[in-house]
Amino acid sequence: MEEIKKRILVVDDDPALREIFGEKLVMAGFLVSYAKNGYEGYDLARSVKPDFILLDVMMPELDGPATLDKLKSDPECKDIPVAFLTSIEDRPEDVKAAKEVGAIDYWNKAMELDELVARVSAIVKNK
Which SUPFAM superfamilies match (predicted)? Predict the structure, then answer.
């Protein structure tokens, strides 16, 4: 029996980072959808029903925390695990704040791509 591929949604306003993260996740066997801002990410989450969302913190129009708030208030999306992505240095207070608003974690965009895949795989393996 063929294993069903897990769906990942990458929401980031930087097209190069979307492509880099997405390509690595596709190579690891995931189905990947892309959004360039929070509004698009929210709409895609409702239609695609991803197993996991990588969500940039700082974006124009609708930032990561506001997008997460919309997702968590939507019955169709509230249970999708979300990790924030940031290009700024990780600070314990940021990680704590991210978890308080419903993110499962807060990851630095500078992490090794293999580490990103390992973390995503660990989160979605039982979903």
Answer: CheY-like
